[in-house]
Specification:
The protein has helices at residues 15-25, 33-46, 57-67, 84-91, 114-117, 137-147, 201-208, 214-218, 238-248, 251-274, 299-311, 327-332, 340-346, 360-376, and strands at 50-54, 75-79, 96-100, 122-125, 150-154, 162-163, 166-167, 174-178, 191-195, 293-295, 334-335, 349-351. The chain is α/β, with parallel strands linked by helices. The strands form 3 sheets. Strands 1-9-8-5-4-2-3-11 form an 8-stranded mixed beta sheet, with helices on both faces. Strands 6-7 form a two-stranded antiparallel ribbon. Strand 4, helix 6 (137-147) and strand 5 form a beta-alpha-beta unit. The structure holds pyridoxal-5'-phosphate (PLP).
């Protein structure tokens, strides 16, 4: 039987044509025409002040940490149930990641635990919109305002999800997006920093351009191009911008397809949830169909289900090892609350195959294989 991979990078429109155009135009370094078109697309579609393409969401998070002026010993509040970059970007500036538990309903940071984690060293809160489902941004922004903290949204999984009509990534002081090939809209590797607070816009350009005022120089705003601040090389090649822009032209179509896949999984697995065999994600009409997962009763069941599916050529994946219990997390961070939900869920969650080219037949095959596991098991 034909294998069903977990993920499959795809081409949907003019990706290869635009790359050929970029080569023909002779501008392959950063900030060429396609990159600028991507910036405008994000600024208009998401309603953000400034969008800047980066090599990755990791790079965007690193830029955000620099722009938040994080210093050694500062503290940053974030969930433990996330990808390493959420913490690493701040640890690179010398900060201590302070982990709080997640909510059991949507696996996002439990906003009711944030305030108790704040100390005089706290500088920022980093909510992660897990699976593209929004964190409680109103509550988080209110806490940040009360304590004068900055908010960096890790919106790596959340492009085109909304929260009360606002785009995720556009609500905090900064938003960070990913176009890694496992995300909804892809460019292989790739990301963007969304700067939502005008105060940081000028410095963001400088940090991204190796700490130089090169962008201002090209706009004729300064007469010399020189080293003015700390920074690094965070801007991607125009080849990435060209590929990405072609995907953005079909962004709504990609999102609709992924939401269709999630809805189909939900319908086909509902009876297993009713029978108490597994738990399904609470489907949220505002989310972008980034992920479909099931929560099982134990690590043992998950291990057996993975083997069962793999034997039929179906490739699910699991994540994350909670950061607070990972070697680097123990070394650099600390927990501010019990981690009961994080620890309880991380060994029981399983992500099902979900990619743009999946057919209805593929979805039915995955669902049938899961039913078959529970009938026989
Ligand atoms: C994918 C992901 C990242 C990292 O994105 P890259 O573009 O690979 O650097 C960061 N945070 C979360 C929550 C992610 O899912």
């Amino acid at each position: 039987m034909k294998p069903i991979p977990f993920n499959k990078p795809f081409i949907i429109g003019h990706e290869l044509d635009y790359i050929a155009n970029a080569v023909a135009q002779g501008h392959l370094s950063g900030d060429g025409g396609y990159t600028k078109s991507c910036h405008r697309w994000f600024e208009e579609k998401l309603g953000v002040r400034r969008a800047l393409l980066t090599h990755s969401c990791t790079a965007a998070l690193e830029m955000a940490a620099i722009l938040c002026d994080i210093r050694p010993g500062d503290e940053v509040i974030l969930p433990s149930y996330t990808f390493v970059s959420t913490a690493n970007a701040f640890v690179l500036r010398g900060a201590v990641p302070v982990f709080v538990d997640i909510r059991s309903d949507n696996l996002n940071i439990d906003e009711t635990l944030i305030e108790a984690a704040i100390t005089p060293r706290t500088r920022a809160i980093v909510p992660v919109h897990y699976a593209g489902v929004p964190c409680e941004m109103d509550a988080i922004m209110a806490i940040a305002q009360r304590h004068q903290l900055l908010v960096v949204e890790d919106a790596a999984q959340a492009l085109l999800s909304t929260c009360k009509g606002r785009a995720l990534g556009s609500i905090g002081h900064f938003g960070c997006l990913s176009f890694h090939e496992t995300k909804n809209i892809i460019s292989g590797e790739g990301g963007a920093l969304l700067v939502n607070d005008e105060r940081f816009a000028e410095r963001a350009e400088i940090v991204r351009e190796k700490g130089t005022n090169r962008s201002q120089f090209f706009r004729g705003e300064v007469d010399k191009y020189t080293w003015v601040d700390i920074g690094s090389s965070y801007l991607p090649s125009e080849l990435i911008g060209a590929f990405l822009y072609a995907q953005l032209e079909h962004a709504d179509q990609i999102t609709a397809k992924r939401c269709h896949i999630c809805t189909a999984y939900a319908a086909q697995l509902a009876s297993l949830q009713q029978a108490g065999k597994l738990r399904l994600p609470a489907f949220d009409g505002d989310s972008n169909g980034h992920m479909y997962y099931v929560i099982l009763d134990s690590l043992e069941t998950r291990t057996k289900l993975i083997a069962h599916l793999k034997a039929q050529g179906i490739h699910p994946v699991f994540h994350y090892v909670p950061l607070h219990s990972s070697p680097a997390g123990r070394k650099y961070g600390r927990t501010a609350s019990a981690m009961t939900v994080t620890d309880g869920l991380s060994e029981r969650l399983l992500r099902l195959p979900l990619h743009y080219e999946m057919s209805d037949e593929d979805i039915a095959r995955v669902s049938a294989a899961i039913h078959d596991f529970f009938i026989r098991g």
